[in-house]
Amino acid sequence: MLYHLYELRHAMMAPVRFQAQMMNSVFKNPFNPLNYTPAGRAMAANAEMVERLTRRFGRPEFGLHSTMIDGQKVKISEDIVAKKPFCNLLNFKRDTARRDPNILLVAPMSGHYATLLRGTVEALLPHHNVYITDWEDARQVPMADGPFSLDTYITYLREFMSLLGPQTHVIAVCQPTVPVLASVSLMASDDDPNQPLTMTLMGGPVDTRVSKTEVTELAETRPLSWFERSVVHNVPFYYPGAHRRVYPGFLQLNGFMSMNLDRHVGSYMQFYQHLVQGDGDSAEAHRKFYDEYLSVMDIPAEFYLQTVETVFQRQLLPRGRMKWRDPLTGELVDVRPQDIKRTALLTIEGELDDISARGQTTAAHELCHSLAQSKQFHHFQLECGHYGIFNGRRWREQIMPRIRHFIREFDPKTDPLPKADLQKTGDPAPERFDRDRHGIAAVRRWIKENRQESHHAEVVD
To answer: Between the CA atoms of 81, 340, 110 and 325, what dihedral angle is there, to the nearest 10 degrees?
Structure first.
């Protein structure tokens, strides 16, 4: 019912939105003398604010048409190399003969489209052949294509890594750190020849018992039935995915905004001032960010609820109790990170991350205790929040070069970096994971000191 009410509200606001668009066009017309007066700019600003606050933002484009390699502009084309009901495996194909490392960039299925990682992809393209998981809006997937759960997510990742082959480096941003670690663990347990060379886990909830945040507190203080009643709704009949149970994008967006409401309100007030003052560059920067941020998609209810229970309530992976259901046999298979011995591990955390706080991602090193110490690395980025881990200046200048160094250390078969690029940026190495200083023993102490067991954790399987 809530989904239908939201759709009805959007339809009822259509006349207001249309009038605002018309007014904005009139007062921004270069032939209108009022366009050059404070009063005219204020009228246009009011109209644009109304239009943007009542608009529904559609799926953005990546818009990455070229990159620079060794000082030369190289064309980029988007190729779909694998197509599944809930995800396309997208390759940013570069028009070059260079043999650079293959990267599987796993985007989060957490409300935003994979285009949220546009800046991540853009920084990687000059030195890597990038593939990305481009997740589909659940309301666009017909019921005939079946359900999508966390088990399905892991199955997709295993199939993608098998398709790309053993010379692959996988990078997980935020939410997919758990399914990526689970996928690689299952491949290691099976001695799969297509295990990736490296695995980079960035700001993800590997162990949410460490460093509590608003996200973990909410998940642990509500029973799973509360989430099912409060946020799960059926897709309206006029969408391709009619009657599918989903966590709607508009509800997720409300949650995102409420976490930092003061900042978003302040940003919109500044946007209004920039419009009135005629500061086009600052206004355009606001539009660019919020056009992406406000573009959200529905998430399958099965995936959302299983993730809440498995990752945030019962912490099954760090407790050694996570299982994956084989889609072919229906058998439950133990997820054993301790079986990983071939895939090098790099964890990345931000000092100011309020989504996946300090220690949650680092805990992966404790789980992969059979992995040689020479294959374990960590990078802790100072003065960096969650979004800054994979986008922005610190990502481009400090985090990405360390990932590049880490990847090339374990991928000697690719072409060397162009000298021009090395002269410009260098490649600072990530810090080797020192077990004595901040390794397994330190992680265990940190978890013991900061962990609070969820009251859901002891529920019998």
So the answer is: 80
